[in-house]
Amino acid sequence: MRLDRILSNLAHLNRQTVRQMIAGGRVRVDGNCCRDGRFEVRIFNRVELDDVLVQAGKPARYFMLHKPVGVVSATYHEAHRTVIDLLDEPAKDELHLAGRLDLNTSGLLLITNDGQWSRHVTNPGSRKAKVYLVETENDIAPEYIETFARGLYFAFEDLTTLPAKLEILAPRRARLSLHEGRYHQVKRMFGHFQNKVIGLHRTHIGSLELDPNLAPGQYRQLSAAEVASFAEPEIQG
Ligand code: URA
């Protein structure tokens, strides 16, 4: 909500008074003087008028989790344990997932209470590279590299996938970098060659790497720099 409206509502002041207070430099947002009444205040901002606290601001929370296989990427599920069940945190009902992984996929998953941030993370326009280690039932032929780089047609969505980079690490093991997240995308891409994915693990989203110190099921807070790494769109090769 706009700063001037917050002040009118919470401090019960009329608009004219609010305008004068803001223009007079009496209002601080997160400790800094704010003279813009149209500033969009978020629930995470601390707002003060002179020495009076108008809004305390909730802490914004950001976590990376090493999702294990067999745990569902949801906040609630009838049959399976969810990734939220793995967190030992207060007010878990305020948290949501910034992206998902299939039940039988492991790896990097982001969880937050900041909807604006998670939209940055998941926004297809940001083109963050998502990197997966893939294990397959059959050998991976070199022709996959060219096919994935060209893009594959997905009839259901009527679209061609964005260029993806495949590195073959072993006959049945590869690293795949995608810049989008279509439904079961990795499995469908290998499915094009009738090659079943038998192991899938996400290691990176953009420049953020799954912390190697986290065992499956463990999580940690993101650092301020890691949170900020999602602020700007980035395109990686
Ligand atoms: N692609 C898949 O097929 N599954 C995932 O969990 C992520 C990407």
UniProtKB/TrEMBL annotation:
Signal sequence, renumbered to the chain: none
Lineage: Bacteria, Pseudomonadati, Pseudomonadota, Gammaproteobacteria, Pseudomonadales
InterPro entries: PsdUridine_s_RsuA/RluB/E/F_cat, PsdUridine_synth_cat_dom_sf, PsdUridine_synth_RsuA/RluA, PsdUridine_synth_RsuA/RluB/E/F, PsdUridine_synth_RsuA/RluB_CS, RsuA_PseudoU_synthase, S4_RNA-bd, S4_RNA-bd_sf
SUPFAM superfamilies, per database record: Alpha-L RNA-binding motif, Pseudouridine synthase
EC number of this enzyme: 5.4.99.-
Pfam families, per the entry: PseudoU_synth_2, S4
Family membership: Belongs to the pseudouridine synthase RsuA family.
CDD domains in the cross-refs: PseudoU_synth_RsuA, S4
Name the record gives this protein: Pseudouridine synthase
This protein's UniProt keywords: Isomerase, RNA-binding
Annotated RNA-binding S4 domain residues: 1-58
Molecular function terms, GO-annotated: 16S rRNA pseudouridine(516) synthase activity; RNA binding
GO biological process terms held by the UniProt record: enzyme-directed rRNA pseudouridine synthesis
PROSITE patterns: PSI_RSU, S4
Catalytic function, reaction form: uridine(516) in 16S rRNA = pseudouridine(516) in 16S rRNA
Function comment: Responsible for synthesis of pseudouridine from uracil-516 in 16S ribosomal RNA.
